[in-house]
Design goal:
globular, alpha/beta, Rossmann fold, seven-stranded parallel sheet
């Protein structure tokens, strides 16, 4: 059963309002399902959109930030809980430990790094938590293509790629993740 979902997303909003719209939809859906949102603690961009939407729906939202990395004016002060860690590494470890599933939204290099780590952990058998990729505006098509090439070229096993849950629709993605956890 999924009690908390960790969503990796950036402090930027992207070039299309579709990204923030998807973040708001996902945040609201997570809250309406009674699932806690675990995320990076920011109040701007995708982080702000998803956290504020979940808060507006009465959801439980936990932000996790590394000490000294974010200035006080970038942190969402309306959270249910804010946890401060000693480092980026301990931040990701705590986020992973609290999460029952992961969703990766469009974002920058930090989002990609967070995704890579939890996906690698799954490949190594360190967790069996569902991992979803929200492919808004086909944002991750080239990354998915890279994974497919990695399988074709023998660098990645298709069994691991098949476990990645992909959708361009927040509601469908959340449903697939909840179904995968049963």
């Amino acid at each position: 059963m999924i009690k908390n979902i960790c969503v990796f997303c950036g402090a930027g909003s992207g070039s299309s309002k579709d990204y923030s719209d998807a973040a708001r939809k996902l945040g609201a859906l997570i809250a309406r399902k009674g699932i806690g949102l675990i995320y990076g603690g920011g109040k701007k961009g995708m982080m702000g959109a998803i956290s504020n939407a979940a808060i507006d729906q009465g959801g439980t939202v936990t932000g996790i930030i590394p000490k000294g990395v974010f200035s006080d004016n970038l942190i969402n002060k309306n959270l249910t809980e804010l946890k401060v860690t000693d480092s980026m590494h301990s931040r990701k470890a705590l986020m992973s430990g609290l999460a029952d599933a992961f969703i990766i939204m469009p974002g920058g290099i930090g989002t990609l790094e967070e995704f890579s780590e939890v996906f690698t952990w799954a490949q190594l058998g360190l967790h069996a938590k569902p991992i979803g990729l929200l492919n808004t505006n086909r944002y991750y098509d080239k990354l998915i293509g890279f994974f497919e090439t990695s399988v074709t070229e023998g660098f990645f096993d298709s069994v691991h790629l098949s476990k990645l849950i992909i959708s361009d629709n927040p509601a469908r993605l959340l449903k697939k993740i909840l179904d995968a956890s049963k």
